[in-house]
Amino acid sequence: MKQSDDGLYMPSFQLNQVIRSASVGKVVASANPAFEVGDIVSGFYQVSEYAIVPGGGLRKIDTSVAKPSDYLGLLGMPALTAWSGFTIVGEPNPGDEVFVSAAAGSVGMLVGQLAKIKGCRVVGSAGSDQKVKLLKEEFGFDDAFNYKSETDWDAALARYFPRGIDIYFDNVGGRMLEAVLNNINMKARIPLCGMISQYNQEWKQRFGVRNLLNLVGKCVKMEGFMCGQYLHRMGEFLEEMTGYIKEGKLKYKEDVKEGLDSFLEAFNSMFSGDNLGKPVIYLGPPQ
Amino acid sequence: MKQSDDGLYMPSFQLNQVIRSASVGKVVASANPAFEVGDIVSGFYQVSEYAIVPGGGLRKIDTSVAKPSDYLGLLGMPALTAWSGFTIVGEPNPGDEVFVSAAAGSVGMLVGQLAKIKGCRVVGSAGSDQKVKLLKEEFGFDDAFNYKSETDWDAALARYFPRGIDIYFDNVGGRMLEAVLNNINMKARIPLCGMISQYNQEWKQRFGVRNLLNLVGKCVKMEGFMCGQYLHRMGEFLEEMTGYIKEGKLKYKEDVKEGLDSFLEAFNSMFSGDNLGKPVIYLGPPQ
């Protein structure tokens, strides 16, 4: 993965450059014998109605298991992120107390469902009552809360986790991470997936976490990861996840917009929290 | 290990209570068939010339390998801490770039020597020029610096680690941890041994580390540990360390004081940095 200097895992967008994104598409012309017209493919390429993409950057997808856009979410990068971060970095045990922030996001909603599948108790935080309802009623979270309605996150976590937190799947960083560290259990694991509260500032302006000493006294592991580290386990990942899909154990929610002009709104919704589910944009003919 | 609520791994001293410490002593009377008068033992018990200690809290030590006080340092808790933190949590590879803070301390001086034994390049920080000299000339560190003489730790680490840092053995926390995270390599490991810069404040007054996002972008593992987690590997530890001692590969330095009245000075020296080596107090007859 490309690495920028400010701790982000993706280079910043540049003015006057084409924006790239995880995408699925249909081959309409091919100069590569590995791909035929009509193939459905996924890759990380430019956001546009038509794109010329080197074959090495594309993968054919199996639409008998899931619909094409599922390869952006339910079986795509967010899912590999949820699966690798939760099961490999998080090392869940049955009975573990699991907290997920940004739980209604494209990764979080899968982490919660994986936690239930692994026999854990899971609570999620999200930024609207509608998302909280979704977590509890659609995705089977044991509980969930709207972080915008809670004035004291330390106290909220103490209330939702009377037995403390064993795994914190961190999507937000900052003050929520600090609140978690005040409610953390011995030998807890904290997979660091992202810190969306911290992206759009210069590092010296970011929130300083004051209670890292709790990591020492409680022997906690906090580990950053990216799904790109686990590409070699893609086979295992797809087998496990498609198994759950066939058993009806995994649900997913997309927030679908149409047309190239909706990109900015869809992108910004991840920061404002206005999205409900994984933002997906349909380009080309209406579905 | 007992766990206090403020993230410390030892309960705070209480007024009007006897202070306890890692100790070695000679048995002068025994009501336990497992111990005979004259046995040399180690344990964690009260700081006094004579102490009554339950047999379960004591371990006989082998003075043919090392002198009694070595079981407080070179083969004691600091050594198990250095060994388990560096080799198990730190996962060193030959060629790794290793940074140790409080490197002239009872744990740090062993971490640096273990790093050299494992084929790493190691740089230490310490709080006086005398300690820096000790690290380079006695303990074989590749380089060392006096953190009190450096005004910009980010820049200092960039200078000492042009190839970045693969393992940071953290004894101090706070601002130095932040500087390290600005110089950290992909997939680095940070065993959190202690955060001596942060102990004597209420948590909200502690230094807030602002660049934890680097843990995400660089897939870094940061893990708190205590040597008590690794007591089951004591046999392996003793075998490896006594091997190095016999081969002349490990040195140790004690800062010896005499008499009970020197306790306060010896203890405080760990915070002021006035000690040169592991603080040890001889009680009883002069050695």
From TrEMBL, chains A, B:
InterPro entries: ADH-like_C, ADH_N_2, ER, GroES-like_sf, MDR_fam, NAD(P)-bd_dom_sf. SMART domains: PKS_ER. It comes from the Eukaryota. The keyword Oxidoreductase applies. Keywords: Oxidoreductase. The keyword Metal-binding does not apply. GO terms for molecular function: 2-alkenal reductase [NAD(P)H] activity. Residues 3-281 form the Enoyl reductase (ER) domain. PANTHER family: 2-ALKENAL REDUCTASE (NADP(+)-DEPENDENT)-LIKE (PTHR43205:SF80), PROSTAGLANDIN REDUCTASE (PTHR43205). This is Enoyl reductase (ER) domain-containing protein.
